Every structure is written in C-alpha cells, then in structure tokens.
Amino acid sequence: MANQEYLALLNRGVIVWNEWRNKNLHLQPDFTDANLRGFNLEGVNFQGVNLTGANLSLAQLINANCRDAIFTSAQLINTNLTAINLQGANLINANLISADLRNANLIEADLVNANLIGTDLQNSNCRYVDATSANLSRSNLANADLMEANFSYANFSHANLYDTELIGAYFYKTNLDKANLIKAHLSGIYLSNASLRKANLYRADLRFAELKKVDLQDANLQETYCRGVNLSQAILIRADLRGANLRGADLRRANLTDTLIDNINLVDANLHETIMPDSKVHDNY
Predict the structure, then answer these.
(1) How far is CA 236 from CA 5, 50, 120, 185, 260, in A?
(2) Contact indicator for 116, 139 with CB cutoff of 8 Å
(3) Rounded Cα gap, residues 180 and 198, in angstroms
(4) pLDDT tens-digit map of 79-102
(5) 3-state DSSP call for residue 56?
(6) Which of 1, 4, 49, 41 is nearest to 24 (CA)?
(7) Model's pTM, two decimal places?
(8) Which of 76, 79, 197, 265 sits in a 20 to 30 Å window from 282, CA-based?
(9) pLDDT tens digit string along 199-237?
(10) Residues 6+ positions from 39 with CB-CB distance below 8 Å
(11) Sign of the C-alpha dihedral, residues 43, 46, 48, 53?
(12) Nearest to 55 by CA among 40, 76, 71
C-alpha cells in the first residue's frame, strides 16, 4: 500500500512535493497501488518513485521527471505523458492504452509486456528500449527514434511508423501486418521471421537489413533501398517491388510468386533457387 504521508504531501500540490523531493532524493517514496486517477501532476518530480500498481489513468504528467521510476503493472490509460522523462523507468506490464507520449524520453525504459495499444509516441525517443512482447497495435510512432531497441514478439499491427528511426533495432518474430513504414529508416534492422503482410514500406531504407524468412505477402516495397538486404527464404508473394534497389541482396529460396518487379535492380543479387514471379525456380534473373 502507498505510504499515507507521501500521499498527504502530494495532495498539497506539485510545488510543495517537488521542494520536498529535491531535498530527499536519497529516499524512494512508495505509492504502490495508489489511486492518482485524474491527478494534475504536471512537472512533478517522481524520479525513482515506486508506483507499482498505481492508477494514473487520465492523469496529467506533462513534463514530469519519472526517471528510473517503477510503474510495474500501473494503469496509465488515456494519461497525458507529453514530454515526460521516463529514461530507465520500469513499465513492465503497464497499461498505457491511448496514452499521450509525444516527445517523451523513454531511453532504456523497460516496456516488456506493456500494453500500448493506440498510444501516441510521435517524436518520442525510445532508443535502447526493451519492449519484448509489448502490444503497440494502432500506435502512432511517426518520427520516433527506436534505434537499437528490442521489440521482439511485439505487436505493431496497423501502427504508424512513418519516417521512424529503426536503425539496428531488433524485431524478431514481430507482427507488423498493415503497418505504415513509409520512408522508415530500417538499415541494419533485425526482422527475421517477422510478419509484414500488407505493410507499406514505400521508399523505406532497408540497407543490409536482416529479413530472413520474413513474411511480406502483399506488402508495398516500391522504391525501397534494399542494397545488401538478406531476404533469403522470405515470402514476397504478390508484393510490389517496382523500382526497388536490391543490388547485392540475398534472395536465396525467396518466393516472389506474382510479385511486381518492374524497374527492379537485381545486380549482384543472389537468386539461387528463388521462385520468380512466373512461379518458376531460377538461379539467375
């Protein structure tokens, strides 16, 4: 249970709380299971605070400092977290459905199994985040920075990743079906065994990305930059690769049945046992 003295102090307002907190950074205030629903906590200093299981739904935490705070299993539904500092925070199993995380700092945050359905993460910094098995379906990550983050087994179906930085990120067996990845920066990303059915990757940068055994059925890959990409054993049935640059790509045993390949660049590509658009197996195209 939350410490009642801390709750009483917080109820006196953010200014009073912050003055006390800044003088007592050596303490770890306990707000376990606290009901802070709808509280206005704009600018609050919750650095290192324990908010395990707390209810912060509909609360205002704009510009709050929650660095290294513990939000395990906390409720943050429809919470305004704009420009919040969550660097190093523990959000394992947290519920952030429809939360506003625009411009948030989530560097090195732990979001394992977190529920982020419909969250707004535009322009957020999610570098080095661990979001294994997190649910980001229908979330908005346009222009966000996800470099070297781990989203293995996560769900990004219908998510908006327009112009997102995903360089060096890890997306093993991730669901990206119908995701918007237009102009996304995916060079060096690890997407092995991921599903991108009907995903839109128009003009995305996939240089030297690892896409072995990825499912790209009906995906839009028009004018993508795929130099040196590994698409071995990938499923590209009915995908649109018109104008794509696959110079030096590895397409061994990939399935390109009914794929559109007008103006494609396959110079130096490895097509050993590749199933081409005419359904025939070719060694060279």
Answers:
(1) 60, 47, 30, 20, 10
(2) yes
(3) 9
(4) 999 999 999 999 999 999 999 999
(5) coil
(6) 49
(7) 0.94
(8) 197
(9) 999 999 999 999 999 999 999 999 999 999 999 999 999
(10) 10, 56, 59, 60
(11) negative
(12) 76
